[in-house]
Amino acid sequence: MEQLNSIIESSKKYTVLYVEDQEDVRLHTVVIFKHFFKEVFVAVDGVDGLKKYKENKPDIVITDIMMPRKNGLELINDIKAIDISQVILVVSAYNDSHYLIKAIENSVDGYILKPLNTQHLLNTLQRVIQILNERKENNEYRNYLEQMVEEKTEKLKQKLVVDDLTGLRNSLSLKQELEKLDEAIVLLINLDSFKHINTTYGYYFGNKILKVVAKKLDEILDKCENKNAKLFRFMSDEFIFLCDESKSIDDLKEFINVLQDSIFNQEIVVDDIELNISASFVIVEGKASQLLQQAEIAMFESKNIGKNRVTVFTEDMETTLKQKQNIFWMNKVRYALKNNCLLPFFQPILDNVTMKIEKYESLARIIEDNNVVVPSYFIEPARLVGLLPNITQSLLKYCFELFSKNHLSFTVNISGDDFKNNSLLYILTNYPTIYNLDPSRVTLEVLEDISVYGSNEILEQLKYFKSLGYKIALDDFGAENANFSRILDLDADCIKIDGQFIKNIHIDKKSYLITESIVSLAKKMNIKTVAEFVHSKEVFDVVRELGIDYSQGYYISEPKLTLFTKE
Predict the structure, then answer these.
(1) In the chain, fewer beta carbons within 10 Å around the N or the C end?
(2) Is residue 159 part of a domain?
C-alpha cells in the first residue's frame, strides 16, 4: 500500500497517452490509469495515437503492439523521430521474445503484459516515474545553469562597454557605434588641468569630480532634443558626445554654450571643496572612421594655443601634427632599436583543415614603459628616414634565434626598402646555417610596394630566395593596386587576402563573391590562401566554407610577445 501511495503521489504530475485497439481492455485500463496520472489521453490505434501524441505531447506513451492501420512498433518509430527522449512503454498479450526484442530495438523504457499484473504494473510505473523525475531535475538544473550563464554573459557584455567609474558607455562602446556609421559629428570635451587636480587632491578625489561631471553631462543629454545623441567617457578626463548627421557644427556650438552655463561656469562642490573647472571643446564632422583621430589632433592643437577654447577640426591641423609626429617617432624608433625595445609580437596562423597552429606572423612593436606601440604610429616615420631595413633585420635575427628552438614556422613582412642594401641578402643567405633552421619554415610576406612596383632587380632577388627554400606570400592581396599579374611575376606560394574583404564576409555579398573568386583562382594555381582579419566565429565559419587554407585574426588570437604553442 505504501508503494502504491508513493507512486500515485509522484505520477500525478505527469500525463499519459494510452493506445489500445481492443475496446473492453481499453476502457478497463483507462479507469486504472486515471488513478495514477494527471490526465489520460486515449487513442484507438497507431494512426490515432500519432495524431493524439502531436496534439497533446504527453509525458508517457503506453501503447499496445498489435493494432490495425499502424502497429505499436511503427508508432514508436514515428514518435522517436519526433522526440528521441520520449518515455514509452509497450503493453501486449504477445510475450514472446520476438516482439520484446523489436520493442527493445526501438529503445522503449519498459513493458507491461496483458492481462495486467498489479505488482508488475507498479514496479514498471515506479521505474518510469523515476526516469521522468531525474530527467525533470536535470532539465531544471540545466535551465538554471543556462540562465546563470546568460546573466553572467550579459553582465560581462555590460562591463565591456560600460565605464566602471561613471556608468557611462566607454571608449570601446564608442568605437562600436562609430563602426555602424558612415558620417557623424562628435563633440570632444577635455577637462582643463585635470592632472593638477589629481596631483593636488589625489586620484580618489579626482574620480569623484569625474563622476559629478559625468552625471551633469548625462542629465543635460536627457533634456536634449536630439534623442540620437549619445554620451561616452573617452579617456581619463575626456568625454565625447556622438551625434548623427542631423546635427551641424552650429548646433554643437549652441550646445557647448549650454554646457558652459550649466557646468563649467559654476562651482562644483565635492567633499566641501569648491572648484571651478574649465573645459576645452573640439568639434569634428565627417567620416566616422576618422573622427576620433581627428578629434585628438584638434585637441592637441587647441591645448597648444590655450585652455577653455572651442576648436573645430580642419584638415591643415592634421598636416601640422603629422610633421611633429614624424620627428617624434623617428627618435622613438632609433631609441627602440638601440635599446632592444623593438620586438616582434607573434600572431598565430591557423590551419583550417587540421585546426592546428603551425606558423606565426612576426609583427613589429615598440615596448615602452609597459605600453605596446603598434606600427601604425612609427612605420611611416621610420621609412622616411630609412630605418625600415633596420627594423626588418632586428625582427629576422630575433625570429631565427627563437624558431630554431622549435618546429614551428614564421612569416615576416618585406618591403622595397629592405632591398636597398645587401643586408637582407646576407641575412637570408647565412642565417639558416648560423641558426640551423630550414628556410622552408620562413615565409617572406611581400608588401604592396614590391608586389606592384617592384623592380626587376628585386624580383630577381626574390627568385633567388625561393631557390634557397624560402616561401613567398603576397600580403594584403586585393587591396589598392595589388593585381593578379604579380602572382606570376613573384611565383607566390601563398596569397593573404586583404582584411577589407574578410571582416564583413558573413554579411557582405560582394566581399564574399570577390573572396570566392580569389580562392578559386588560387586553388587552380595551387597557391595557398590566408584570410586576414578573422575576428569572429561567423567570419571564421564562412572562411572555412570557402575553402581558404589558413585563418589569421583576433578570433584565433591577438598578437602576443610569446608563442602560443598549445594545439
Answers:
(1) N
(2) no
Return the closest-CA partner of residue 292 out of 376, 161, 174, 378. Answer: 174
Identity of residue 23: E
In the DSSP assignment, the letter for residue 38 is S
**Across residues 92-106, what is the average pLDDT?**
61
Evaluate whether 18 touches 121 at the Cβ level (below 8 Å).
Answer: no
- Looking at the fold, whether 125 and 76 belong to one and the same domain comes out as yes
Dihedral sign, CA of 95, 99, 101, 106?
A: negative
CB atoms inside a 10 Å sphere around CB 237: 21
pLDDT tens, residue by residue, 502-532: 999 999 999 999 999 999 999 999 999 999 9
| DSSP SS3 for 284 | strand
**Using the 8-state DSSP alphabet, how is residue 409 labeled?**
E
- Looking at the fold, whether 258 and 331 belong to one and the same domain comes out as no
pTM: 0.48
The residue range of the domain holding 419 is: 323-551
Separation of alpha carbons 120 and 97, rounded Å: 18
120 and 26, same structural domain?
Answer: yes
Pair (510, 491) in one structural domain: yes
116: DSSP letter: P
| DSSP string across 335-387 | HHHHTT-EEEEEEEEEETTT--EEEEEEEEEEEETTEEE-HHHHHHHHHHTT-
